[in-house]
Specification:
Layout lengths: L2 H12 L5 H20 L4 H18 L5 H18 L3 H23 L2 E2 L4 E2 L2 E2 L2 H24 L5 H19 L5 H21 L5 H24 L1 E2 L1
Parallel strand pairs: 3-4
Antiparallel strand pairs: 1-2
């Protein structure tokens, strides 16, 4: 197959299996982000970060590898936005973790694609494993929160919760576990609070706040979808 042929097949696979709801949801989410961003006169980096971030999580929920492409663009923009807001935990998380993990995720998902549905194969963890994962995540939140407090970061423990839960959730995402969405819901709630406070204090990135709000709705939808489709392991 030629290079152009491979690209064409990849694009076809990325939209394979989409339902009417999926098209409506990605349209509404994008329209909300763009509309609020333009109304509040957000900058180009904020709008780009928000749109690519929304596309990334929706494509992730649909088990599509292109999520990692949009995820990489989102991460690079978000690093700059978080630095301006003094959310250093978010900066370090995205620069040192999400950038390489987008590459790792692409490779890992490529090896576990369902050829019939053109979606990644999904699975679920046993209850005892879930308890261990959640307990270790909780301990890491407090440890990293103290570090961020020493660095003089903004909202250190909220920032830490968003950071550490995101790290675990991304690992579960790469491993194709349904439980990632439980953690993403936690991350999204914390991030909405964090960016809401930032905006109330005079922050300019309404697109980022809107992005996390859409993430939250999407995480709930995708948890229900993955729980239905995943295999227990």
């Amino acid at each position: 197959m030629t290079y152009c042929g491979k690209i064409k097949k990849f694009m076809i696979d990325e939209f394979a299996g989409w339902k009417v709801f999926d098209y409506i949801w990605i349209f509404i989410a994008s329209a909300v982000i763009l509309g609020l961003s333009l109304y509040w006169e957000d900058d180009l980096i904020g709008i780009t970060s928000a749109l690519t971030g929304v596309w990334c999580v929706i494509l992730t929920g649909n088990g599509k590898r292109s999520s990692f492409i949009f995820g990489m663009v989102n991460v690079l923009c978000y690093i700059f936005i978080s630095w301006k807001a003094s959310f250093y935990g978010e900066v370090m998380l995205n620069a040192l973790y999400y950038v390489p993990m987008n590459v790792v995720g692409w490779i890992a998902w490529t090896r576990h694609m369902n050829q019939q549905t053109a979606e990644v194969k999904k699975k679920s963890m046993k209850i005892n494993v879930q308890v261990i994962v959640y307990a270790l995540t909780l301990l890491s939140i407090f440890a990293y929160g103290f570090i961020l407090k020493l660095l003089g970061g903004n909202l250190p423990f909220i920032d830490s919760m968003s950071t550490m839960v995101s790290i675990v959730a991304q690992i579960l995402s790469v491993k194709r576990y349904t439980e990632q969405w439980v953690l993403w819901i936690v991350v999204d709630i914390v991030s909405v609070i964090m960016w809401g406070i930032n905006f109330a204090r005079g922050g300019e990135s309404i697109a980022t706040l809107a992005m996390w709000s859409v993430y939250l709705v999407n995480a709930i939808i995708m948890y229900l979808k993955w729980r239905k489709e995943a295999k227990n392991v």
